[in-house]
Amino acid sequence: MPHPIKEISETENSLSLKELNLMLKKKQKSIPTKFLYDDLGSKLFEDISNTQEYYLTRTEKKILNKNAPSIMNISRAKELLELGSGSSKKTKILILQALKEKNNLTYVSFDISTKALNMSYDELKNISPKLDIKLVKGDFINDLEKVENTINSRLYLFLGSTLGNFNNETAIKFLTNISKKMKKIDFLLLGIDKVKNKEIIKAAYNDKDGITEKFNKNILNVINNEYNLNFQPNNFQHIAEYNEDKNQIEMYLKANSDQKISMLNEEIEINSGDKILTEISRKFSDLGINEIFKKSGLLLEKSFNDEKNYYSLYLLKSNK
Ligand code: AVJ
């Protein structure tokens, strides 16, 4: 029997066809990043995280392995709530640590993809009878308020540097929402990719096996299915370039030829060479991320890094 999944999104699609239409007609065309993560996309991201070039997941895991006792000791959490949990492979480290000292622990996995929630459940189901697993399907930008509150001490987890996918305004809005939802005894553990040599960063988004390319192009299949469109993924090329002024990777799909996309009784023209933005992935300095914490009502309790300072985990409290 599959584990039950609680769906908390009010609408099936928070983005209307009209809104998508406008995004595709703007000077800088774009598709919302979240459409990268259907079932196949979640699986492809899992494959990216195992490539040699993609240092983020591996480094985050290393930091977690080293510091799980300290993190669980400071937070004393009885519940872990993970936002955008993916396969939960890294979270397992924290769960195992917590179970060493606790008679029971709740783990809430919150993700937009059913596939990811099931992967997460499969990863964790046999760990221990002391672990209660809850699966919640929703969009962490729109549906966070609807996540049930608890009187237990909760550790919010937002790992993988997913915050880097948000522009500054959205990042602050999102973290402020978490900070407001947090009780005095709660903590937030945030994983952040840091500014470093740009060749290392670029390589991570241009793996030689082309998995990131497949991941990027899959976004077109996702919106084709969701909105009944006729994008041809093979008419586009994967681009991931590093914007040094903004310290961010920008992932695009670049049209190989002129094409027309039928939508809402019109034909959207895409010209050869046009680039559709599918993702930004920001890289932070300690100074920059601390500025964001301040603006979001968060206080830094402790930070953890790898020896090269490629990546950081920040353990935070709400300032209320
Ligand atoms: C998991 C969202 C942080 O931005 O590095 C991987 C997604 N995109 N390769 C990232 C991603 C291209 C990833 N995040």
CATH level-two architecture of the largest domain = 3-Layer(aba) Sandwich
Low-confidence stretches: none
Helix segment tally: 9
Order of helices and strands: EHEHHEHEHEEHEHHEEEEEHEE
Highest CATH level, the class of the largest domain = Alpha Beta
Helix content: 25-40%
Strand percent estimate: 25-35%
Looking at this structure, what is the CATH superfamily of the largest domain? Answer: Vaccinia Virus protein VP39
Bound molecules: N,N,N-trimethyl-histidine
Please give the alpha-carbon distance between the first and last residues: 42 Å
Could you say what the CATH topology of the largest domain is called? Rossmann fold
Instruction: Give the oligomeric state.
Output: single chain
User: What's the pLDDT, averaged over the residues?
Assistant: 95
Side by side, the strands of the main sheet go 1-5-4-3-6-7-14-13
DSSP strand count: 14
Please state the structural category. Answer: alpha/beta
CA radius of gyration: 20 Å
**Largest sheet composition:** 8 strands, mixed
Give the overall shape, derived from the CA principal axes. globular
Count of individual domains: 2
